[in-house]
Design brief:
- The protein has 3 domains: 3-92, no CATH class; 125-236, Beta Barrel (Butyryl-CoA Dehydrogenase, subunit A, domain 2), CATH 2.40.110; 241-391, Butyryl-CoA Dehydrogenase, subunit A, domain 3.
- Helices cover 51% and strands 16% of the residues.
- It has 11 helices and 11 strands.
- A 4-stranded antiparallel sheet has the order 4-5-9-8, with no helix packed on it. A 3-stranded mixed sheet has the order 3-6-7, with helices on one face. A two-stranded antiparallel ribbon has the order 1-2.
- Helix 3 (69-79) crosses helix 7, helix 7 (240-276) packs parallel to helix 9 and helix 9 packs antiparallel against helix 11.
- It is globular, with a radius of gyration of 22 Å.
Length: 403
C-alpha cells in the first residue's frame, strides 16, 4: 500500500466525518429509525444526501478500485460516528462485506447484475448462512449446515431455514450458503446468488434483538424449493467454506472500524457530560472515580485503533489474515464494550436513557461481541493455533537436540 493511498483515505475520512457530524447525526431521532433498523424510506433519503455530497460508497473509487484496508479503516471509523452513518454512506453490514466478496469472487456478468447496483447504493443485500439453533443448524460452526442444495439439470433446488439474516426484509440481492455433495464424501458448501424477493424465500418472522442499526433487522427465513440457475453459483461449486473466510476476515475488521467510530462518539458525549455535571461541589470529571474511567477509555480507544491498523496492514499484504482478524475481533469488541459501558456509567441515569445516542451504542457494541463469531469461538480457534505452534516449536527443539 502506498502513502498516497493512505493520504487519499485520510482525505475521504475527513469529508465523511464532516458529513456525519453536520448532516447524519440530526437524523438520529427520526421516527423512521426503528427498532428493526432505519426504514427503506430513511435509507433512501440519507443515501441521496450522501450521493449529493459525493460520498456514497466512499471506500470504492469511481473506477471500481477498492481502498486499501488501512485507508478503509479511516473512512469506516469516521462513518461510525453515528449508527446511521454507515447506512447513509453505504458501508454498512452486511452490504459492505457482500460487496467485498462479490468483488473478489463474482464473474463479470454477476458483478454487473448483483454488485454494481449495490455499489451505487440502489439496492440492499443479505447473507444467508446462519441457521436456527432449534434445527441443529450452522451458527459459529458453518460445517453444521442443514440447508441443502441439490442439482437438477442446469439448476439447483435449495431447501432449509436460516436465522439472524440481517437485512433480508427489503433486500434485492441474496447470497445463500447451502450444503452440496462434492462426491468425495466430505462436507462441502456452495454459495448461490439470488434475486429478491422470491416466492420461495419466505420471511418467517423478524426477530426482536438488542441492536437496531441495520436496515431490515434480523429475520428467520424459510427456503422452500428455491430454484437457482447454475450460472448464479458464486465462484466455484463446493467452495463455499473457503469463500466464507474470504468474506469474514475483512468483514470482522470492518465491524471493528465502524464501532470504533461509534465509541469515540460515546466517549465525546460522556466527557462533555462529566464536565457539565456537578456533584459534591465539583464537576464529575474531577472525581477520580469518573476521571479514571474516561482515562481508561482513552487507552482502550487507542489500543483498538492500533490493533485495527495492524490487522488491516496484514490483509493489505494479500494474506487471508484469519488469525489476525480473530485476534482483532476479540480484542476490539471487548475493549469497545468496556468503553461504551464506562460511558453509560459516567452518565448515570442519562446514560441508560434515550436522551443521547450512548445507550444505543452500548446495545450495538454488546451485540458486536457475538456476530461474525463470538469471542469464545475466536479464542478456541486461536488456542488451536497456539497448540500447533507449540508442537512445531517443541519438535524443532527436539530435532536440534538430536542433531
Amino acid at each position: 500500500m502506498s502513502q498516497n493511498d493512505l493520504e487519499h483515505g485520510r482525505a475521504i475520512a475527513e469529508r465523511v466525518e464532516r458529513f456525519v457530524r453536520d448532516v447524519v447525526i440530526s437524523y438520529e431521532k427520526d421516527p423512521r429509525a426503528t427498532s428493526h433498523g432505519p426504514t427503506d424510506e430513511l435509507v433512501a433519503e440519507l443515501r441521496g444526501l450522501a450521493r449529493e455530497a459525493g460520498l456514497l460508497t466512499p471506500h470504492i473509487d469511481a473506477d471500481g478500485s477498492h481502498l486499501s484496508q488501512r485507508a478503509t479503516a479511516l473512512v469506516l471509523q469516521a462513518s461510525g460516528l453515528s449508527p446511521l452513518g454507515p447506512v447513509a454512506l453505504n458501508v454498512m453490514a452486511p452490504d459492505e462485506g457482500n460487496m467485498y466478496l462479490l468483488g473478489q469472487v463474482a464473474s463479470a456478468a454477476q458483478k454487473r447484475h448483483f454488485l454494481n447496483p449495490l455499489v451505487r447504493g440502489e439496492t440492499r443485500s443479505a447473507f444467508f448462512m446462519t441457521e436456527p439453533a432449534e434445527d441443529g443448524g450452522a451458527g459459529a460452526d458453518p460445517s453444521m449446515l442443514k440447508t441443502v442444495a441439490v442439482q437438477d439439470g442446469d439448476r439447483w433446488i435449495i431447501n432449509g431455514r436460516k436465522a439472524f439474516i440481517t437485512g433480508a426484509v427489503g433486500a434485492a440481492v441474496g447470497i445463500v450458503m447451502a450444503r452440496t455433495d462434492s462426491g468425495d464424501g466430505k462436507v462441502a458448501a456452495t454459495m448461490f446468488l439470488i434475486d429478491l424477493p422470491d416466492p420461495a424465500v419466505r420471511i418467517e418472522r423478524v426477530m426482536e434483538t438488542i441492536d437496531s442499526s441495520m436496515p431490515g433487522g434480523h429475520s428467520v427465513v424459510v427456503l422452500d424449493n428455491l430454484a437457482v440457475a447454475s450460472d448464479q453459483i458464486l465462484g466455484a461449486p463446493h467452495e463455499g467454506f473457503r469463500y466464507a473466510q474470504v468474506r469474514l476476515s475483512p468483514a470482522r475488521l470492518s465491524h471493528c472500524m465502524r464501532w470504533l467510530g461509534a465509541c469515540r462518539r460515546a466517549h465525546e458525549i460522556a466527557s462533555a457530560y462529566a464536565i457539565r455535571r456537578h456533584a459534591f461541589g465539583k464537576p464529575l470529571i474531577d472525581h477520580e472515580g469518573v476521571g479514571f474511567m474516561l482515562a481508561d477509555n482513552m487507552i482502550a480507544l487507542k489500543q483498538a485503533e492500533l490493533m485495527i491498523d495492524w490487522c488491516a496492514g496484514v490483509l493489505d499484504t494479500g494474506a487471508l489474515g484469519t488469525t489476525e482478524s480473530s485476534m482483532t475481533k476479540v480484542a476490539v469488541s471487548e475493549a469497545l464494550f468496556g468503553v461504551a459501558d464506562r460511558c453509560v456509567q459516567v452518565m448515570g441515569g442519562t446514560g441508560v436513557s434515550g436522551d443521547t445516542v450512548v445507550e444505543q451504542i452500548f446495545r450495538e457494541v454488546r451485540a458486536f461481541r457475538i456476530y461474525d463469531g463470538p469471542s469464545e469461538v475466536h479464542r478456541w480457534s486461536l488456542a488451536k493455533a497456539v497448540k500447533r505452534q507449540a508442537l512445531s516449536q517443541n519438535l524443532a527443539i527436539k530435532s536440534a537436540y538430536r542433531s
